[in-house]
Design goal:
single chain; about 280 residues; alpha/beta; TIM Barrel; eight-stranded parallel beta sheet; about 15% strand; hydrolase; Amidohydro-rel; Putative TIM-barrel fold metal-dependent hydrolase; hydrolase activity; Metal_Hydrolase
């Protein structure tokens, strides 16, 4: 079984020549995190490959992640960032996947002005352009799953991935349940998948995180194992990389071996077109 992490970050330090997003340091995961550090962690945790997502605090840059995919093509691919508010971004998606290592885009609607972009029209142009170009989109849209439901309905040819089961970082323990109830409603759309990423950070328990087991079961029952993607979001993960892998590979007795193959990597690779 090839294990592929559905979300990991690498990034470069903030410098005058390469400034981060204004205020980005307030929610950054650290000063920097190199591809060499990530590879070391992956090897120790028996993770074969990872989808790299440029972190939002760096701004709309893809250079560090694309360099990692270029240097380690067997280990990494990229879901890049695009500036929704820049008119020059329109038209870019037609050739987006021609960039070596690039699979799609990742959009976040959770902080500052972006919190309203799904409802105020700012993001409206991206959905049809991505659908027409065959570009999948990972979406972090906590509290907006009803809006994502509408996007999936209007654009059935657009492959969407809901990040972190739709959870904000401050959704802890029993507060997960109403979010999961909203999330599973999206399973009716064949073009929607979910990332089961960073889940130990949503509970106060230690490994093996027993309260997560039934919650994950509910999501897998709704979407099926081919549309649920394991991942770590390592740099903000509570617990260890090995523990978040073993949560799925050793602790969830409702998963058959074939289910694990899909959830632990085959699913995300096929969904995003990582060949």
């Amino acid at each position: 079984m090839t294990i592929t992490d559905a979300q990991a970050h690498v990034w470069a330090p903030e410098t005058p020549e390469r400034p981060w997003l204004p205020g980005g340091r307030d929610f950054a995961h650290g000063d920097s995190y190199t591809v060499e550090s990530l590879l070391s962690e992956m090897d120790a945790a028996q993770v074969d490959a990872a989808v790299l997502v440029p972190p939002s605090f760096e701004g709309d840059r893809n250079d560090v992640c694309l360099a990692a995919a270029r240097d380690y093509p067997d280990r990494f691919r990229v879901m890049g960032r695009i500036t929704l508010t820049d008119p020059k971004s329109r038209g870019l998606l037609a050739n987006w996947r021609d960039q070596p290592g690039m699979l799609g885009i990742r959009l976040a609607f959770s902080r500052g002005p972006s919190d309203n972009w799904m409802s105020d029209g700012t993001a409206d142009w991206a959905w049809p352009e991505a659908e027409a170009a065959g570009v999948p989109i990972m979406v972090f849209a906590p509290d907006k799953l009803h809006l994502l439901d509408e996007v999936a309905e209007r654009h059935p040819g657009l492959r969407l991935v809901v990040d972190h089961l739709g959870m904000r970082t401050n959704v802890i323990d029993d507060a997960m349940d109403p979010v999961i109830a909203d999330l599973v409603k999206l399973a009716r759309h064949d073009n929607v998948a979910v990332k089961a990423t960073c889940l130990p950070s949503n509970v106060t328990e230690d490994f093996p995180y027993p309260s997560l087991h039934d919650r994950i079961h509910r999501v897998v029952d709704a979407f099926g194992p081919r549309r649920v993607f394991w991942g770590s979001d390592l740099t903000r993960l509570r617990g260890t990389y090995d523990e978040v892998r073993r949560l799925f590979t050793e602790e969830l007795d409702f998963l058959a071996e074939e289910d694990l193959e899909w959830i632990m990597g085959r699913g995300v690779r096929e969904w995003l077109g990582w060949k």
